[in-house]
UniProtKB/TrEMBL annotation:
The lineage of its organism: Archaea, Methanobacteriati, Methanobacteriota, Stenosarchaea group, Halobacteria. Signal peptide: none annotated. It comes from Halorarum halophilum. This is DHH family phosphoesterase. GO terms for molecular function: nucleic acid binding. Residues 4-98 form the RCK N-terminal domain. Residues 360-455 form the DHHA1 domain. InterPro entries: DDH_dom, DHH_sf, DHHA1_dom, NAD(P)-bd_dom_sf, Oligoribo/pAp-PDE_c-di-AMP_PDE, RCK_N. It comes from the Archaea.
Length: 486
């Protein structure tokens, strides 16, 4: 049996790879010289010629695969193949830029049409029922309703989970034919986060808080946080089209599509689940970022980990770059980070099994999380809080382990009235405007004392009646306006 492949784009190459080595004769015609060379090295019969010229076709073909990336070329080749080989089975790929008319024409010329949108529909109907399928189509509908550029916004000073989730949602938006860009406010200053972005060459835009983003973007999506203007610098009146998060919300969320599932360890897990269910294999860049995001937020699968996190990791692992992961996990540590950790140890105040430490003026606020983790290693300490100030804001990072304390709710109760706070039961943070704490002279020591009195005082006072961590998923939200909530 002779199988003829006309054109050899990305889809065509995958088809050739699946057919190569079989018992049937395989013949490829493409004008891509590099592809011809590569196929010949794999012992595949390939000819460098114009696949839209019927004179280059062999005398006989039992099956014809039309597989260029261009829709117009595929229409031409399918018509020629049907005329030249009227008895052959013709399988045609719609191409990257097909509209409804293109699909109808190619369907008339072919015995079978390969259409990514149709394949997703088949996948949903065949393997996804109930809530997962409904989530997929709600998300796809919300994205396809976007008319113009979409900003996928991570929270301020994004961590690996937020970075990876933003990049992955951009990929899903592109699949829905929506122009999208991953964005953030603040800085990517933690050395591991910088290494992740640089080594994977991730494309993220640092937004200017002095500019109104609505001048450039028609719609907004939030990942790893859920409210505009809270842990990001977006205008509060913006109504996002998509919110995907794994942090339980303190207040009602307003968006076109909302997927908040606090029963998973990372937002990256949710994005990996969408990619898998849509049948979209992530490239090495996205897969590596998502896997690292899951590992960081679950502390290498030891903190708030669910079956879904392991499933996502298993899906992502074959596409990841282990060398990049190793380099990201072992970056050089700056002297500023070591100094912050040293000050946290030196200035700690312990009451019972809880420790709070003010490190004063900050040069690297991401060092707070590392210091909070380090203090948690101390004997007899189950809860830590490390805080400092810079650029008119007090930044707070907390950790807890081995208790039933809900640290996210505790910090909300302690600091939401004077700032913004939240997070998970065992990992949380807060930001408080420095000016709200009172006027002092321009002396760092005086400011440090006021910050210590307010933050530590509220923290230890709230601990006495602190809420317990939930024992089950209490915030599983998937909504789409106009329909009943899931």
């Amino acid at each position: 049996m002779r199988r003829l492949v006309l054109g050899c784009g990305a889809v065509g190459h995958d088809i050739v790879a699946s057919l190569a080595g079989g018992p049937d004769e395989l013949h490829v015609i493409t004008d891509d010289r590099g592809r011809v060379t590569a196929l010949r090295e794999e012992s595949v019969g390939a000819v460098e010629a114009d696949p839209t010229d019927a004179s280059t076709y062999p005398d006989h073909a039992d099956m014809v695969v039309v597989a260029d990336d261009s829709t117009s070329r595929n229409r031409t080749m399918a018509a020629l193949a049907r005329s030249r080989f009227p008895e052959a089975f013709i399988l045609s790929y719609v191409g990257d830029d097909a509209d409804r008319a293109d699909r109808e024409e190619l369907a008339d010329l072919s015995d079978r049409l390969v259409d990514p949108v149709g394949l997703v529909a088949d996948r949903v109907l065949a393997s996804s029922r109930g809530e997962p399928a409904e989530r997929m189509w709600k998300l796809l509908r919300a994205l396809r309703d976007v008319d113009g550029p979409l900003a996928v916004v991570a929270h301020d000073n994004p961590d690996p989970d937020a970075i990876a989730s933003a990049i992955a949602l951009v990929r899903l938006a592109e699949f829905a034919d929506v122009e999208a860009e991953a964005c953030y406010y603040g800085d990517i200053s933690h050395q591991e986060n910088r290494a992740l972005v640089n080594l994977l060459d991730l494309d993220m835009r640092n937004l200017d808080p002095g500019m109104d983003p609505r001048e450039e973007y028609d719609a907004f999506a939030l990942v790893d946080h859920s409210r505009p203007g809270v842990n990001d610098s977006l205008p509060r009146e913006i109504r996002p089209v998509v919110v995907v998060d794994h942090h339980p919300p303190r207040m009602p969320i307003e968006a076109t599509f909302i997927d908040i599932r606090s029963d998973v360890g990372a937002t990256s897990t949710l994005l990996a689940d969408y990619l898998e269910r849509f049948g979209l294999a992530p490239d090495e860049q996205v897969a590596t970022a998502l896997l690292y995001g899951i590992r960081v937020d679950t502390k290498d699968f030891t903190r708030e980990t669910a079956d879904a996190d392991f499933d996502a990791a298993a899906f992502l692992l074959p596409q990841t770059d282990p060398e990049v992961l190793a380099k990201v996990e072992s970056p050089s540590v700056s002297s500023d980070v070591l100094d912050t950790i040293a000050r946290a140890i030196r200035n700690r105040e312990t009451r019972g099994d809880a420790t709070a430490s003010c490190v004063g003026e900050l040069s690297d606020r991401d060092a707070l999380a590392q210091a909070a983790d380090k203090l948690l290693d101390m004997d007899g300490v189950t809860t830590t809080l490390v805080y400092g100030f810079t650029d008119g804001t007090v930044y707070v990072s907390g950790r807890t382990r081995g208790t039933d304390l809900d640290l996210g709710e505790t910090l909300r109760d302690a600091l939401d009235q004077i700032g913004s706070a939240g997070g998970h039961a065992d990992m949380a943070g807060a930001q408080v405007p420095l000016g709200i704490l009172g006027e002092v002279e321009d002396e760092t020591e005086s400011m440090t004392e006021i910050v210590r009195d307010v933050i530590a005082g509220r923290f230890f006072e709230t601990l006495a009646d602190a809420p317990s961590a939930p024992t089950h998923d209490v915030d599983r939200i998937v909504t789409f306006p106009g329909e009943e909530d899931d």
